[in-house]
Amino acid sequence: SSLAVIPVLIVFAIFQKQIIEGIVLTGMKG
Fold first, then answer.
1. Is residue 14's pLDDT more than 80?
2. CA 17 to CA 9: how far, in whole Å?
3. CA–CA separation, 30 and 24 (whole Å)
4. 0.85 cut: is pTM over it?
5. Is 18 helix (H, G, I), strand (E, B) or coil?
6. pLDDT over 80 (residue 16)
7. How many CB atoms lie within 10 A of CB 18?
8. What is the 3-state secondary structure (H, E, C) of 1-30?
9. Distances (CA, A) of 22 to 9, 10, 16, 25
10. pLDDT of residue 1
11. What is the end-to-end Cα distance of the chain in Å, rounded?
């Protein structure tokens, strides 16, 4: 069961990173 969690964590980490970068970019522009 733990093996199925690994891909989810990887996708979540990448997704979270892109969200943070998007917030920072919009924050700098504004």
1. yes
2. 12
3. 10
4. no
5. helix
6. yes
7. 10
8. CHHHHHHHHHHHHHHHHHHHHHHHHHHHHC
9. 20, 19, 10, 5
10. 74
11. 44
Read off the amino acid at residue 30.
G
- Position 29 confidence tier, pLDDT thresholds 50, 70, 90: confident
**Calpha distance 18→23 (Å, rounded):** 9
Q: In one letter, which amino acid is 19?
A: I
Q: Average pLDDT of the chain? A: 93
- Cα(20)–Cα(2) distance, integer angstroms: 27
Task: Tell me which residue has tokens 């970019």.
Answer: 25
Structure tokens at 10: 């990887």
